[in-house]
UniProtKB/TrEMBL annotation, chain A:
Superkingdom of origin: Eukaryota
Lineage, top ranks: Eukaryota, Fungi, Dikarya, Ascomycota, Pezizomycotina
Family per similarity comment: Belongs to the PIGS family.
GO term, biological process aspect, one: GPI anchor biosynthetic process
Protein name per Swiss-Prot or TrEMBL: GPI transamidase component PIG-S
Principal subcellular localisation of the protein: endoplasmic reticulum
Assigned keywords, A-Z: Endoplasmic reticulum, Glycoprotein, GPI-anchor biosynthesis, Membrane, Transmembrane, Transmembrane helix
Localisation per UniProt entry: Endoplasmic reticulum membrane
Transmembrane segments: 45-67
Record region (Disordered): 1-38
Biased segments, Polar residues type: 22-32
Cited InterPro entries: PtdIno-glycan_biosynth_class_S
Keyword Endoplasmic reticulum (UniProt): yes
Associated pathway: Glycolipid biosynthesis; glycosylphosphatidylinositol-anchor biosynthesis
TrEMBL record, chain B:
InterPro entries (UniProt xref): PIG-T
One GO term of the biological process aspect: attachment of GPI anchor to protein
A Gene Ontology term for the protein's cellular component: GPI-anchor transamidase complex
Protein name, as recorded: GPI transamidase component GPI16
Pfam annotation, one family: Gpi16
Length: 577, 619
């Protein structure tokens, strides 16, 4: 192949030949000295217009079309409101509890008793978001039209379900007074007093008022601590305003909150019988559940629903990596080490898959050890059951000790299951986060309602906050309209939940908080948002470059050349002038 | 349950066992006539039902039947049956019924389920009739059909989707790929096996995945569903290495409700079965040394009639003797005693072997076992010991008599004819070997949408008569990318005749993304299902089935780097056109002699070099 120089040389000679053939041409048109004629202004401007129009098409039409067709649809989200909720700037939950007081005394006396007690109570209370409001109720027997006095318009009737606690004052002649008794199965506090206490109700030093206030404070102390802990952990805004919890209380609450299951409207309870041999192969679980579980689940029905399934799994051996139990001579029992318990559940082999429907599954595993390894206990503590945080519970059922050669138990009766069922009930209670005090079950459930509502509000708010952050930090993810709709719904229900809380309707608040949390989760986990988070730029380059490269280079070069010429001409003109 | 009822139960069990065995192991060849057999089976069916209803608690049965086949092969039929009362099932109190499967069935409102995983082909010419009359086997790959309760077709399909997706997770199979294009609603080919008097609005849906490779990961979940989990009982013999090395194997799961006469007390019965045909010589190879090597020449008995025998070469003498084998050698692991859940009495005889009476069988075990012989001593059943290993050893033996294999009622083969990538034709050849009975059957084809049959080219031809064998046709044409073709034909073959069914089809061209990663392998078309309507010898509600092999359809396959090539080529053409026009518009054209001398890149470069050298010289 000829080098460019050769080609040029041959061209030159050719041109010179042509020149020699036409000797009559003017000598001016010699090869070295020839100059192109001055370009006319018209053609100059024509060229510039052409270049400019190409650029105009590329920039004004091409770019917008490209931008429009490759843009990702992102619907508008109320980012400010979302982060405000997450930071706790709006919707601070307050918990005004209504406590009805029923007293067989004159309404005036009741009124003053309530006022005094309220005063003492407010002095005792250190947590502003949680308030106890006392209000009178007519004693049913003495109620009549003449005594009907409206107090502050907040007069309450005894059967209102928004009333958290009913204090019933009962005059007694004998025994130590004042004394109180909390009904275990109804939200009622009986306060026994001697009629002499009533005379001094108006003074702040009234022993009855102080007694009631102290009792109430004690009853709601754990709830206050729980709510305060919740506020302090979930939202930075609140920390300063919350009175500092004692270290050990906080640690205890922390321990308890880590094991509690995430709130869900429906839980699936799975009761499984595991045994490493073929016996026992049957259990009277249906009757046992009816007797030991059903009442408990019934009382929880206001908060969550439960479905139950059971299974029997034979030949369910422990995992091969699990250290085998050791025989303890002193206790005459086989023991498992405390630190090994987390590996007890053989997740690879035991069919403990979650239930198929929506909602979390709580597993309760009853393990019947082999005859030769019975009794099986946890070392040191000697316990035979333990709780697996946020998962369920395990109980070991050691068959009653019989002679070695006796036939192993083939079926477990309802009575044999009783201790295990009681263990499971307790485990379920702690997994659901039911507080340990006070003694009255309805009161504990209503506390749970408030704590759950508050935690759902916080969880929904923080989910919304996280969504707002994702929206701002990842500009490449698409945000469909359904997300915006869900966010709007979540914000609405959050607001409603807080309003309901403020007005003391906790059941309704829980309902709204549940919807808000569900919608917030739905918005955050929208599938189409996850799909195209990563679409590498290399792909775009690979697709565009073969087209854009060859087109962009002439366009750019032409523009550069024209600008250079214009600059040179401008300089020349300046130099000339 | 009184004493009388208990006796009845035991009686029922005994009858059932005898019935099942005669049914299974070819009593037809041992003096029991067809009609007699059918009668016995019908009674046994009734008794069994009665027995199941008397036992209102859930129970469990298992049985393994071994049967040596010609060409030193062995058929092993495992059957596991667990019952759960429907009340316990509704309340989700699972005992022998697996919780995972039970919840799926409840969630998808499935009343009856049949799931099959199969590999290999049943060689009916050498092996005779299929196990369970073909009612417990599926087409190659995965086959699933179910009766689903739903108000309308759409709801049924939604629930079907739930079902296949959940089963996909449970069995580690790609069942979730059974979408609308692979689902059909058969009209004649399947009948429910269970009692569905209480259920209304049942929809039958059927899906196949002929491409699915069935392997060990499907066996593990299958074993987990069993109460004894492969740790005791006959299931302890099931090993993935041997099972999937078999010449033919099929795993089946059948769930059906069984009710009493009034339809009051119902049970949910789950039948799990594994049928496999093992090559004895191949299975006996040790697992650590699976490559077959010739034994040393001293150990070979030479066939001296061959002229080429020499010092170091030898043609092995074929004595025609039955090879020696033992359970442990064949299955690669010992039988770990009985599963203690099986009932006492006849139901506890969980291992049966069907051989001629003179075949020597040695039992090796340390525990207590019991042997019983039935059907003119051709069936030997063993009650296995609990907790100790059990082995059967059959030495090499020269046999004078053999078992006569019952002949299959029909044999069928299907193939693709034609050439090229555009059209083809499918041909099914179905033979009736019986010299006396005409056979009526339903032929079901479920074709993928990209295989478009031309129904007007459908021809059915019988070689012995000119009469049209087609009695009834049901056809639902395919819709591209939405559903496949569904063809059902009811036909009759006269005795000793061959029926040839042909139709032409066109191959569709798929979209780029619709090709699988191994597009050049071809596309599988599901096996055709043949259900024999009459004569029905099985006597129960399971029916008689056989299936053809799947078809491999080669479709026109594109070059998969095409899109990028297209982008590059189009861009180049566009860039060329654009460059030319643009240059024509913006360049100024001057004479050659008028062009600047040192223009262009070369000039600039020369200029630069000159300047640099000048500078160096200066310094």
């Amino acid at each position: 192949m000829a080098t460019p120089e050769d080609a040029n040389a041959s061209l030159k000679t050719e041109v010179s030949e042509i020149a020699s053939v036409h000797p009559n041409q003017s000598p001016k048109s010699g090869v070295s000295s020839a100059k192109p004629p001055q370009e006319s202004t018209r053609s100059l401007w024509l060229r510039r217009t052409v270049i400019l129009s190409f650029w105009a098409v590329a920039v004004l039409l091409g770019l917008p079309v490209w931008w429009k067709t490759t843009a990702i649809y992102r619907s508008d989200l109320p980012l400010q409101a979302m982060s405000d909720w997450a930071e706790g700037k709006i919707g601070k939950p307050v918990f005004p509890l209504r406590i009805a007081v029923e007293a067989p005394i004159l309404p005036q006396d009741t009124h003053s008793l309530i006022q005094t007690t309220q005063h003492v109570l407010d002095d005792l209370n250190e947590f502003s978001a949680h308030q106890l409001r006392l209000m009178p109720v007519d004693p049913p027997l003495t109620a009549n039209a003449s005594q009907h006095v409206v107090v502050d318009g907040t007069r309450n009737s005894g059967d209102d379900k928004d009333t958290t606690l009913l204090i019933r004052l009962i005059p007694v002649e004998t025994g130590e007074t004042p004394r109180s008794y909390l009904q275990p199965y109804s939200p009622t506090l009986h306060v026994y007093y001697s009629p002499s206490h009533i005379s001094s109700v108006s003074s702040t030093a009234s022993p009855l008022a102080a007694f009631i206030a102290r009792e109430l404070h004690d009853i709601f102390a754990e709830e206050q601590a729980q709510l305060a802990y919740l506020l302090s952990t979930t939202s930075g805004e609140h920390i300063a305003k919350v009175h500092s919890l004692p270290q050990e209380t906080a640690a205890e609450l922390q321990r308890r909150s880590t094991r509690v299951l995430k709130y869900a409207p429906t839980y699936h309870l799975t009761f499984s019988l595991f045994t490493p041999t073929s016996t026992p192969s049957a259990w009277d679980i249906e009757a046992a559940l009816r007797q030991y579980m059903a009442p408990l689940l019934e009382s929880f029905s206001a908060i969550s629903n439960f479905t139950i399934d059971t299974q029997v799994q034979l030949y369910a051996t422990l995992s091969p990596s699990f250290p085998p139990p050791e025989y303890d001579e002193n206790a005459k029992a086989w023991t498992l080490r405390n630190e090994d318990l987390s590996g007890f559940i053989n997740a690879a082999e035991w069919p403990l898959s979650p239930s198929i429907a929506d909602g979390p599954t709580v597993n309760f595993a009853l393990y019947v050890p082999e005859q030769s390894q019975s009794p099986l206990l946890v070392k040191d503590s000697g316990a035979s059951s333990w709780l697996v945080p946020q998962w369920g519970g395990v109980a070991i059922l050691n068959p009653p000790s019989t002679e070695q050669d006796a036939a192993p138990l083939s079926a477990l009766s309802k009575e044999a299951l009783a201790p295990a069922m009681q263990t499971f009930s307790n485990q379920l209670i702690s997994l659901l986060g039911l507080p340990q005090t006070p003694a009255s079950l309805p009161l504990r459930l209503s506390t749970l309602t408030r704590v759950r509502a508050a935690s759902l509000v916080f969880s929904a708010s923080s989910t919304l906050g996280a969504l707002a952050q994702v929206y701002q930090k990842l500009p490449s993810i698409p945000v469909p309209d359904t997300v915006a709709k869900s966010v709007d719904l979540a914000l609405q229900h959050l607001q409603q939940a807080c309003d309901e809380l403020r007005e003391g309707r906790f059941q309704g608040a829980l309902e709204h908080a549940r919807i808000a949390d569900g919608e917030a989760e739905k918005a955050f986990f929208e599938r189409s948002m996850v799909g195209q988070v990563y679409f590498p730029d290399e792909h775009k380059v690979a697709v565009y470059l073969p087209l854009l490269g060859p087109i962009a280079v002439p366009l750019l070069m032409a523009a550069l050349k024209e600008i250079k010429n214009e600059v040179a001409a401008f300089k020349a003109r300046r130099a000339a002038s | 349950m009184g004493l009388g009822a208990r006796t009845k139960v035991l009686l029922g069990v005994r009858e059932e066992v005898v019935g099942a065995l005669t049914d299974k192991v070819g009593a037809a060849d041992f003096g029991v006539g067809d009609t007699e057999l059918r009668g016995a089976l019908v009674t046994s069916g009734h008794r069994r039902l009665a027995h199941e209803l008397l036992c209102d608690i859930s129970d469990y049965h298992e049985r393994l039947i071994l049967r040596p086949l010609p060409q030193s092969t062995l058929l092993a039929s495992f059957n596991f049956r667990s019952n759960e009362s429907s009340i316990a099932f509704e309340q989700q109190n699972f005992r022998y019924f697996p919780r995972s499967l039970g919840q799926i069935l409840q969630h998808a409102h499935t009343k009856e389920l049949h799931l099959r995983f199969s590999v290999g082909r049943w060689d009916a010419e050498s092996w005779g009739q299929r196990p369970w009359h073909g009612a417990r086997e599926g087409g190659n790959g995965v086959e699933l059909w179910a009766w689903i309760e739903a108000d309308n077709d759409d709801e049924a399909f939604t629930r079907w989707q739930t079902l296949v997706n959940s089963l996909s997770g449970l069995f580690c199979a790609s069942l979730n790929f059974i979408d609308a294009t692979r689902t059909i609603r058969p009209v004649m080919a399947f009948e429910p096996e269970g009692d569905h008097r209480n259920a209304s609005n049942l929809h039958l849906l059927h899906g196949t995945l002929p491409h699915e490779v069935v392997c060990t990961e499907n066996l593990t979940p299958f074993l987990k569903l069993l109460p004894c989990k492969g740790k005791a009982g006959i299931s302890s013999l099931l090993d993935g290495h041997k099972l999937f090395d078999a010449s033919f194997q099929t795993m089946a799961i059948d769930v059906r409700p069984v009710c009493d006469e009034q339809g009051q007390d119902c049970l949910l019965e789950m039948d799990q079965s594994v049928d496999m045909v093992l090559d004895v010589v191949r299975s006996k190879r040790p697992q650590d040394n699976p490559i077959p090597r010739p034994p040393p020449i001293e150990e070979i008995q030479c066939d001296s009639s061959k002229y080429y025998n020499a010092e170091d070469t030898c043609y092995p003498f074929n004595s025609g003797a039955e090879p020696s084998w033992s359970l442990k050698e064949i299955f690669g692991r010992p039988l770990k005693g009985a599963c203690p859940l099986t009932e006492a009495g006849e139901g506890s005889e969980t291992l049966c072997i069907n051989t001629p009476p003179e075949r020597t069988i040695q039992v090796e075990t340390e525990g207590q076992f019991a042997e019983s012989r039935t059907s003119s001593d051709t069936v030997r059943c063993y009650k296995l010991p609990v907790g100790s290993n059990f082995d059967l050893v059959l030495p090499e033996q020269q046999m004078t008599t053999g078992l006569v294999l019952p002949e299959p009622p029909l044999s069928a083969s299907r193939s693709i004819n034609g050439h090229g990538q555009e059209r083809g034709s499918a041909q099914s050849v179905i033979k009736n070997p019986s010299s006396t009975d005409a056979v009526e059957f339903v032929y079901l084809e479920s074709l993928p949408w990209f295989m478009r049959p031309y129904l007007h080219t459908l021809r059915a031809h019988v070689d012995t008569t000119t009469e049209n064998p087609v009695k009834e046709t049901f056809y639902r044409p395919a819709v591209d990318r939405q559903r496949g073709s569904h063809l059902e034909i009811r036909m009759v073959i006269p005795p000793a005749s061959t029926l040839t069914l042909t139709y032409d089809f066109e191959k569709a061209i798929l979209r780029y993304t619709e090709y699988p990663p191994d597009a050049n392998r071809g596309f599988d078309a599901a096996p055709a299902v043949i259900r024999i309507l009459s004569p029905n010898r099985s006597g129960d509600r399971k029916g008689i089935y056989l299936r053809t092999t799947p078809l491999l359809l080669s479709l026109p396959t594109p070059d998969f780097s095409m899109p990028y090539n297209v982008i590059i080529l189009t861009s180049t053409v566009m860039a060329l056109g654009f460059g030319n026009i643009f240059n024509l518009l913006v360049r100024r054209f001057v004479g050659v002699d008028e062009a600047p001398q040192n223009g262009g890149f070369k000039g600039v470069l020369q200029d630069k070099i000159a300047r640099l050298t000048g500078r160096f010289k200066k310094s």
